[in-house]
Sequence to fold (608 residues):
Amino acid sequence: MRDSGMINNLSEMWALRTNGNILRANDLFIKEVVKIGYPLNAGIVEKYQFLKGKTDINFLLLDISFKRSALHAKRALDEALELQKLLAEDKHYEKDGFFYLQMGLFYMGVSLYSKAFDQFIQVRKDNSTMKDYLYGRFNLILTMEALGYQYDEYLMEFESDFSSYNGQTDYESLMQQFLALKIRFHFFIEKNFSKIEELVSRYKIEGQGYYFLSFIAKLPCFNVDKIKKYIEAQKVSVSEKHWLNAYRLRTFSELLVVDDLKDDVKLESVVERVYLWTWRWLMAPDTNLFYKIGEVIKHLNLRAHEQEVTHEHYQMLENSLLWISLFQGAGSIWCNEILKKINYAKVRPCDFFSYEKKIIEIYQAQKEKRNIIADDMILELTNIITPEFVLPELLTANNMLSSGLKSLINTNITIDKGVVIDFSLMKTSFLKNKKIFKYIENEHLVKLFNVFENKMVSSKQEILLSCFGLKEFNYDIHSNKLANLLSRSNKELQDLGKFQIRQDVIRLIGDFKIEVLGACKHTSQCYPFWEAMEFEKDIQKEASLRPKLDKLADKWFSRKELEQILNFSKSNTTRKINQWCEEKILLKKGLGKKTKYYFVENIKDMFV
Fold:
């Protein structure tokens, strides 16, 4: 990389940027922007035209790289690709190893590892400085890790070649990245905590390595006292954690803000949040935390196809969803709907997470009374010989998780007359004279009767939250949903009793008992957030269905006609109709089955 006469600090700014001192690099950058009148808020074409023939084009690359550091990785890649196109048309500019290195990092910023791999290969082929060559070679190994390739020998060769540069100021950032990779290698591949502790004792771990150590230390299924003591002794302040973006800091603090649900956060960081928070919820059930987990999973579901993740991250997400599904009693269909969207390298899984998945499957089999299968699965469990992995001990200790799991699999009926709800199977049974005369597998009924286990009066808001995860009651949108649930319940109760609604109060009338089986704090908090995901999926279909909706223009139509065109469920169609009526998009006439609707607005204008 060269300095021009126009910008004297370009090499220094890049050195600061590369070594992680982003704030200082940005300060110098802004001073140069002011000095040369650089159009900071202009588009790439205008910036390129301004710099062309005046200074090094790497100044524009630096500008784009700051966006990557500020969690605008997708925007950074888009601008870099636009710049690449301009350079391809400019015969006077020859791309070098440094350019390919930066392009690879832009692709890595959005987890497009296959494309990043191609760029780092190019760094080794093209004219590169030794520094660019080493950085390119190391990042090539990082992409191999993400893509699931065997990188053991490459890592050993790089460590040998890099040893002569270790300790030099220009390579401080590379050294920390290398230590982070070694820690992950010892953890995921070798399962060797002694080597991790050896690295911790020899070096001051910063950056990504420190984050990963902190992440492991906060997982209850690992007993890593030496690592915990190291983290506490470091006492790294927030200001020193320039490498640890605000998103990851909020993950550790269990904070969820609006910016966290935007598309700029790497999918792997989202998965790490889901996994860590799920384990915290397993050990200490908390309604507010579970709500946050649900919101993050809904956000992840919308973005699941955008980026590649490592096999280990796929396993973390899979296990998180399976744990939640186990306590929700809703089966794994919704989990598979999310997981099948994830792009990951299907090689070299982590034994820790494979063992954890097998444990979940055993509990699922026991919950469903498939005891012979569960016993066979227990015999097939592969022993992971490392004392730091304490999941087996965790499941037998006296804690909220083990207590909840026992509640799931121990289900015995004790009442003579009434309603028995089984959270483990999401089944409601109706008894007379100690005999079950009817049972219904319906999650909403289970949630409804659970509210009335020890009381006879509740509110509409409590029912909506417990049964559907809806935090606010809207009369127009939710009245039908609530009425349908209570009507179904009264039909199943027969002469045992009935529900009555008086304004915002719901009463359960009848001389019978409600017994709850397979229940614990986990099951009572597991509202079905996947229903909201399905509703969002239906809403996304609207724009593509606009041509079909044109058939309803300038005519009165029924709810059933709209339902068939939208291919929505009855409840979601009703919800959409209520919304459009409230927004004055639809006119309504008639009552009951004779109700008709009419689009007031031009249908095409509704989707602008």
Summary: Residues 314 and 344 are 7 Å apart (CA to CA). The longest helix spans residues 475-493.
